[in-house]
Structures are given as C-alpha cells and as structure tokens.
Amino acid sequence: MSTIRVLVADDYEPLRRVVRLILQIRDDLEIIGEASDGLEVVQKAKALQPDLILLDIDLPRLNGIQAARRLHDLVPQAKILFLSVESSSDVVREAFGAGGSGYIYKLNIGRELLTAIETVLRGTEFVGSDLGFAQTAHHHRSHEMLIYSEEKILLENFTRFIAAALRAGKPAIVVATKSQLDALLPSLNAEGVDATAASKSGALISLDVRNALPAFMVNDLPDPVRFVNVATDLIRAAAKSATGAPTRVSACGVCAPVLWAEGKIDAAVWLERLWNNLAKEHELDILCAYASSSFQDGKDERAFRNICAEHTAVYSR
Q: By mean pLDDT, which of 213-222, 243-252, 282-291 is the weakest?
C-alpha cells in the first residue's frame, strides 16, 4: 500500500489536532508537515513535495486561495482540499478556480474529511455539505453525485436542480421511485414552477425507475445498445420542448443508485460509465443521488472509489 503524504495548513492548532486524529484512522495517510500561514505552506510544500494539501482559506500573510495559486505551479502533482468556514458559492468557485480539488465546510470535517480525501485522490471534485451546488464552469460535462442522509435532502436537491433547468428554458428528465416522483411535483409547484404545465409541454419528463430499468437491463447488467437507444430517445423528446439550439438537457435520477442498493455494484458502475459516454455526444447536466446508508454496510471500498470516479463532483448532505 503506497503512502499518501499530507501537508496540513491551518492557523488554528486545535483544528490541526482534529485533522491529525481523523487521519490516524487510515494507515496510508501520513502527515509530513503542518503550517499556520500561507507563506509557510508554500515554503513547506516546495520543500516536502506532498501528495495532498489540506488548506484553510483564512490564513494570515497569504490567504488560502492566493497560496493555492502558487502551490499549483510549485507542486502541480499535489491535490488541494480546502477546509473553511466560508460557505458562499462565490468563494467555493474561486477556490476551485485557484486549483482546488475539493472543499469542505469545517464543521463537517469529522464526517466528510476521509470521503473527501478518497474522492480527490481519485481525480474527482468533492464539495461538502452546507455549501449548495457550486458547479464549476470548466466542466463541459457535468455528472454530479449526491450522497444524501435523508429523503427530504434528495427531494430538495432534485427540486432545485430541475427548477433551475426549467427556469432557464432547459428541459429536464427525472427517473426516480414512485414515492419520490409523487413528492417532487408538489415540491416544484411550491418553488413557483408549474410542474404540471412543464410535464404537458414535454419540458419535464418523469419516469418511475422500476419501469425504466427493465428497458435496458439484461442479465442484471445494462445493455449498452439498449441503454443508448432508450436514453437518446428521452433526450431527443425532452429537447423538442426547448427553443434555440443547441439544447442542454438536465437529467437527475436514481437508476444506478437503485442497482447499487440491490448489491449490483458492477451494474451501477457500468451504468454511470454509460451516462458519461452519452454525455460526450449530448449537452447534458446529470445528477445522481445515492443514500448514504448504501455505503455503510461493508461494500467494497474500491467499488465506492470507482463509483465516485465516474462523476465530475461528489456532494455529501
């Protein structure tokens, strides 16, 4: 097992102590140095060449974002994971624009830090809870993964995702359970979006996941040809409702998460990969929602890393 060399930069020593305790859980994570200000972390990173830098935003002498811009040139191989009490979307976007790979609200590091580290080391962005959706503009393809702790969180995020699309004149597709769909339409209406009118016009296409999966599943695996045919038909049907071209379609759902929850791990990873391939040919924003309980029963850790790697960003709520 290779060791990941970690540099921790925060001016609050008790926070660094908490980080040390959390990282001790993992044998493959080694803290090789600590810094209490921005200039110090730049100097130590240059000398120590870490694999991962845990970086506070509000550092003295040189703030975290300024430091990250220097670190990006000095240690380009290092992943930068921001830890901050700042939660505005503007700050989050600026952090990613400075070279960050992940961003965690400090009050949540106890439950999110290790997941965030796993995610960024796999090359996928991580945005922690309490930060809202801060999609970064440099992604042509947006395929995000929400890990939710309660059904109401799924509902809130699906509602926000679909409402944003419809208000922007973009069509939306949602594939969810019957109970989730039943709750979604009133939730959209409560947000001021006429879900009934959107459904009638074809701008919003809703499908029960239990009806959608059999259309492309063969022997417990998604058939690539069937999937492409089914998904392409849906995208084209949704695009007909939009004005102007090209049409960007927003799609959210639980197809792969349902497969994962049923123990069909390979099928879930393969399905996410098929969505990625489809996004190369179509203008797509994709949001998948996985229950956090799905990752707490001893499922293969490598499989979890693989499912995260199929997404452009991972969120935990």
A: 243-252
The winner for highest mean pLDDT among 75-84, 89-98, 236-245 is 75-84
DSSP result, the chain: -PPEEEEEE-S-HHHHHHHHHHHTT-TTEEEEEEESSHHHHHHHHHHH--SEEEEESS-SSS-HHHHHHHHHHH-TTSEEEEEES---HHHHHHHHHTT-SEEEEGGGHHHHHHHHHHHHHTT-EEE-TTS-----TT-SSEEEEEEESSHHHHHHHHHHHHHHHHHTT--EEEEE-HHHHHHHHHHHHHTT--HHHHHHHTSEEEEEHHHHGGGTEETTEE-HHHHHHHHHHHHHHHHTTS-SSSPPEEEEE-HHHHHHHTT-HHHHHHHHHHHHHHHTTS-EEEEEEEEGGGGSS---HHHHHHHHHTSSEEEE-
pLDDT, average across residues 138-155:
83
Candidates 216, 248, 244; CA nearest to 231 is 216
Structural domains in the chain plus CATH codes: 4-113 (3.40.50.2300), 142-316 (3.40.50.300)
Residue listed under structure tokens 């080391």: 121
For 86-95, what is each residue's pLDDT tens digit?
877 788 889 9
